[in-house]
Design goal:
153 residues; elongated; alpha+beta; 4-stranded antiparallel β-sheet; OB fold (Dihydrolipoamide Acetyltransferase, E2P); lipid metabolism; 10 strands; 18% helix; Biotin carboxyl carrier protein of acetyl-CoA carboxylase; 2 helices
Length: 153
């Protein structure tokens, strides 16, 4: 099963009341348990945040879109490739991968997004300077949510 199709499937399944699913084909087997928690939880966990829109989540998104329009042209927006929990460092108490003002190279790890108990390293697609980190450590993120602004130099 292609990774992108799997991501789409998991995103759609989060919108349902299913708590567990098992899918098996000739060359692929997937068993997933969805543990849903309130969005206020900020402690590290393996919970996948629901992507169902709510009245409170639509207002911040509008603000984020306004910010995106105001960013300079030479800024690259690093977006979350998945739904999960955002971590700035490789382990609790460790130094963050990057800080605002740090110079980064293409391919350098910027953060980790935990999804379904898997730690996914998110790498920079450009070289430049981290100008803004838009997400707090331990915060749930959604697919396509802006995470960083990197000034391309």
């Amino acid at each position: 099963m292609e990774l992108e199709k799997l991501r789409e499937l998991l995103k759609e399944l989060e919108k349902t009341s299913l708590e567990e699913i098992e899918i098996e084909t000739e060359d692929f087997k997937l068993k997933a348990k969805f543990v849903k928690s309130p969005p206020a939880v900020t402690a590290p966990s393996a919970n996948v945040s629901p992507t169902t829109p709510s009245s409170t989540s639509s207002q911040p998104e509008a603000t984020e879109h306004r910010e995106e329009k105001e960013i300079p042209e030479n800024y690259y927006v690093v977006e979350s490739p998945m739904v999960g929990t955002f971590y700035r460092a490789p382990a609790p108490g460790a130094e963050p991968f990057v800080k605002e003002g740090d110079r980064v190279e293409k391919g350098q790890v910027l953060c980790i997004i935990e999804a379904l108990k898997v730690m996914n390293e998110i790498e920079s697609e450009v070289s430049g300077i981290v100008r803004k980190i838009l997400v707090e450590n331990g915060q749930p993120v959604e697919y396509g949510q802006p995470l960083f602004y990197i000034e391309q130099v």
